[in-house]
Amino acid sequence: MDVKILLLLAIVGNTEICKGCRILALYPLPKQSHFMMINQLLKGLALKGHQVDLITVNTLPKSHSNYMQIMKLPDNANPIFSRYENIKNLHYNFSMMSWMGYLRCQKMEHPEFLNLARNPPKAPPYDVIIVQDAKPITSEAFWSRGTDYTRFTDSYTKKNVPDNVLIMSWIPQEKVLQHPNVKVFIMHAGLLGTQESIYYRVPMLCVPLAFDQWSNANNYVSKKIAVKVDLASVTQTKIDEALNEMLTNPIYRENIRKYSQLFRDRPQTAIDTANYWIEYVKRNGKNSLRSATMDFTWWQIYLLDVPDRNH
């Protein structure tokens, strides 16, 4: 009897701690590859007992009792920003960010969304809002050794493509990387592809296109888990030389295995980690994870106001 009473007290005492959050997930930009990742996160949060409401341009493949799409925003993305000739333009990054900012604001003017913003639910209210970060929409293509790379980066066409090249509108990237015959991953050095590449122990041939991808690629090269080829000067010969280096030098596969082990060795699963920090924000308030640099001037962020004692 005493044991039953203690158990009941423990359950009642922890009711508030275990109470799920009501979460609004807002993903207004049309990026299917990123949505696949966030969909897994949101499903994981729902399995933890949270109520998750989703607003996105994508279509949720399957709704659950506590994870459902409450609004579908129109997909009015302009495909010109994923064309090769625009990527080569020096102003591409600035144009892309301006366009994505405009697109996000445009979607926030959707009447159904405005109605939700002006009349949010109160029983219960939203505890946490997860908002999509802006990253570039870029084109990816697979090509083979001995094939001119520039022949089919400008357009997705099956014309003049050799038999050993497969072009698809969508490729199950994670499943491909798991295959034991995959030796190199040719990619643009984006963070999501990087995580999958490291997790599945596949060295990277990086062709960075925009934003953080250049610094990412340089970082991977310094760790000897990747080789970088510049898009502005890419040729068939350079691609072939990079592949020969990675396929014949064992250092890349040895290092990627080491970093994969470090990446996999963690105290919590990715879902448990995300769940902890989301509940952390609910417990401690919206500013609990706010960086102090948000209040800094640009010269403070770059430490220009700190004297250099070496000079």
TrEMBL record:
Q: Please give the InterPro entries that the UniProt record associates with this protein.
A: UDP-glycosyltransferase (IPR050271), UDP_glucos_trans (IPR002213), UDP_glycos_trans_CS (IPR035595)
The listed locations are: Membrane
Coiled-coil ranges (or none): none
Q: Which SUPFAM superfamilies does the entry link to?
A: UDP-Glycosyltransferase/glycogen phosphorylase
Enzyme Commission number(s) from the entry = 2.4.1.17
Q: Which positions make up the signal peptide?
A: 1-20
Major location, coarse class? membrane
| Source superkingdom | Eukaryota
Pfam families with a match to the protein in the record: UDPGT
**Molecular functions per Gene Ontology:** glucuronosyltransferase activity
* Topology class, membrane: Single-pass membrane protein
Which keywords, in A-to-Z order, does the entry hold? Glycosyltransferase, Signal, Transferase
Give GO cellular component annotations, separated by semicolons: membrane
Catalysed reaction, written as an equation: glucuronate acceptor + UDP-alpha-D-glucuronate = acceptor beta-D-glucuronoside + UDP + H(+)
Give the top-level enzyme category. transferase
Per the record, the similarity remark reads:
Belongs to the UDP-glycosyltransferase family.
Record's protein name: UDP-glucuronosyltransferase
Q: Which species?
A: Trichomalopsis sarcophagae
| Species lineage | Eukaryota, Metazoa, Ecdysozoa, Arthropoda, Hexapoda
